[in-house]
Structures are given as C-alpha cells and as structure tokens.
Design brief:
By secondary structure, the chain is an alpha+beta fold. The chain is built from six helices and 14 strands. The longest helix has 21 residues. InterPro entries: ApbE, ApbE-like_sf.
Length: about 250
C-alpha cells in the first residue's frame, strides 16, 4: 500500500508492505483494510501536529506560546516534550541549534518534523504494522526489512551522492539545496556556512533530524560533533566539495 499527502509544507509518503496489508474480515472484506486504517491514523496525527505546532498558523499552540498567551502549566505534554528536546540540542550544540531567534519568534519546526514522523512510525508499530517506509520530504524512518534510501547530490538535483540501506532506523539530511539558507547558526543569527549537506543515520528520526540540523548549523565542526553522538553515522559534503563519511555509514552494496 502506498499513500502520499502534503502536510507541514512537504510531501509525506507511506509505503506498507503486503505482509502487513491484511485486516480484511472473514467474509471477504478489503484485504488492505488493516494497513488503510493504520495509514489513516498516521496522517490524522501528522495533520494534528501541523495544526498545533506550526508557527505559521495564528491559533496554533506554538504561536500562542510565542505571543505570551500561554503559561508553562497550560502547555500540552507534547509541546513540553518538544521544547525539552530543543533545549537538549541547544545545549549540546553550544547554541548553534536554536528555536528562539531574535526577529523570528518561537519556531520549533527543526525539531517537530522528525519528532512527529517518528511518533507516526511508533503508531504504525503499535497498530501491528511491522514493515513500512515513511518518508517526510526526504527524511525517512523504516522498519521490517532493508530499505534503500538515496542521498541527493547537494548541487545536482538529478544525481545522488550515495544510496543507503536502512533497516529499523532513520535517515535525515540537512542542506541548502531545497530552501536556500534557511538553517541559521543560533550563535550568530546568520545563515550556517561551511557545509553543503549533512546526512545522519540514527535509531530514530527524532535523533537523525535534530542531529543533522544542529550539525549543519555548526558548520564544518558539526561533522565530528554529529559523528561522536551515540548511535549516529554521518555523511557530509563541505563547502569545498570534500566528502566525509563515518565507517559505519550504511552504504548499500
């Protein structure tokens, strides 16, 4: 089963393999019913996250917090969790990862996407779906079997730098090729420099996406920082077009 929706400003696709596409009833109901129900719940969750956490929606929880309309005790558990993760990565990156920048207000999008899609993957597992690939604008979490994931060339849209093989894990890439200089170094408030792209493979998409974003914001120093984080493997292209890859980066045979 395959399904694609446009949520959080990007295409999100879900593929569930046939082994999990049962759930039809004994009277000959739709054999893909179980997967369809699980997919419905995934996309409902992601739409809910967008409505609650987008800084571009005036009445979202994040927007209301940013305007000072909510007290700490009024925040949802989910937003508290996201903000705690943002603080963890802010400290770990020496301030390069930052969701409160002057002139931009509160914007936790750099954390929300990976966190939300990882939660969606956990929802699938809870529904008994064990073999799937969930792709949010090129950041992927997968389970059940080896899945091949391409890492786009940072300067040539029709080429790949590498092809990975991911089983029960996640991969995320940060770069400037899709949205320009949208990643800022929180220490300076200016666009991050030193890297063209940086890809992280980690056990969860929460870790992979946040680590890739923080490392990219740090510039060239972010490569070693990301590689030193437990469970993370890294592939990076710096501003001089040099390629760096950790020994455990799961390149497909």
């Amino acid at each position: 089963m395959r399904r694609v929706e446009h949520i959080m400003g990007l295409p999100i696709s879900l593929r569930i393999d046939a082994a999990d596409s049962d759930g039809g009833d004994a009277d000959g109901g739709d054999p893909t019913g179980g997967a369809a129900v699980a997919a419905d719940r995934v996309f409902t969750w992601l739409r809910e996250v967008d409505a609650r956490f987008s800084p571009f929606i005036a009445d979202s929880e994040v927007s209301r917090l940013g305007r000072g309309e909510l007290e700490p005790h009024e925040l949802s558990r989910d937003l508290v969790e996201v903000l705690d993760l943002c603080e963890e990565y802010r400290v770990a990156s020496g301030g390069a990862f930052q969701v409160r920048l002057p002139g931009r207000g509160l914007d936790p999008c750099a954390m929300v996407k990976g966190w939300a899609v990882q939660r969606a993957a956990e929802l699938l597992l809870a529904e008994g779906v064990t073999t799937f690939c969930l792709n949010a604008g090129g950041d992927v979490v997968s389970a059940g079997r080896p899945w091949r994931v391409g890492v786009r060339h940072p300067e040539q849209a029709d080429r790949l730098c590498a092809v990975l093989e991911i089983t029960d894990g996640a991969v995320a890439t940060s770069g400037r090729y899709e949205r320009g200089d949208h990643i800022l170094d929180g220490r300076t408030g200016r666009p991050a420099t030193g890297l063209l792209s940086l890809t992280v493979v980690a056990p969860s998409l929460t870790e992979a996406d946040a680590t890739a974003t923080a490392a990219f914001a740090m510039g060239a120093d972010g490569i070693d920082w990301a590689a030193a984080r437990e469970g993370c493997e890294v592939f990076a292209v710096d501003a001089e077009r040099r390629v760096f890859r950790t020994s455990g980066f799961p390149v497909a045979a």
